[in-house]
Amino acid sequence: MQKVTPFLTFDGQAEEATRFYVSLLPDSRIDQVTRSPVEVPGTAIGGVLTVEFTLAGSSFIALNSPGFEFTGAVSFQIGCVDQAETDRLWAALTADGGSEVACGWLKDRWGVFWQVTPNRLSELIKDPDPDRARRAMEAMMTMVKIDIAKLEAAVNLEG
After folding, report:
1. What residue ranges do the domains of the chain occupy?
2. CA–CA separation, 109 and 128 (whole Å)
């Protein structure tokens, strides 16, 4: 059991959201759905109260409760191995009411903020050559969804 578990509050859509999230990444699953034994704000007796789930090996809990909204002050970063994974996750998370933000950030249809980040971006902005790292960062700052080929071109002073 991990010591700190992210706890996400949804307005009646915890189960729908978590089923979607676990469909996106390997080593993900719904671990337990707890139904409310009493009526609480936003949840009837027998309705989904919490969903414990594992997302890419990390434990999370989702709660159904009205009156909360997500902000960009907290986001979840997904490291992507290549452009294909970046594109797939970006498309899935922005679908059905999600929205693009900037610099690899997006907001999904439930209002949760995500950073869909190719691993190559992290490597390039940590380049030991400060000019290459600067060019990578400057290129990233112009992007909405991260484009690895454009990052590489900027770092290598191409096109």
Report:
1. 1-68, 70-159
2. 38
**What are the pLDDT tens digits along the chain (159 aa)?**
789 999 999 999 999 999 999 999 999 999 999 999 999 988 999 999 999 999 999 999 999 999 999 999 999 999 999 999 999 999 999 999 999 999 999 999 999 999 999 999 999 999 999 999 999 999 999 999 999 999 999 999 865
Topology adopted by domain 1-68 = 3.30.720
Residue 89 tokens read as: 């996750």
Place domain 70-159 in its CATH homologous superfamily: 2,3-Dihydroxybiphenyl 1,2-Dioxygenase, domain 1 (3.10.180.10)
Buried b / exposed e along 145-159 (16+ C-beta atoms within 10 A) = bbbbeebeebbeeee
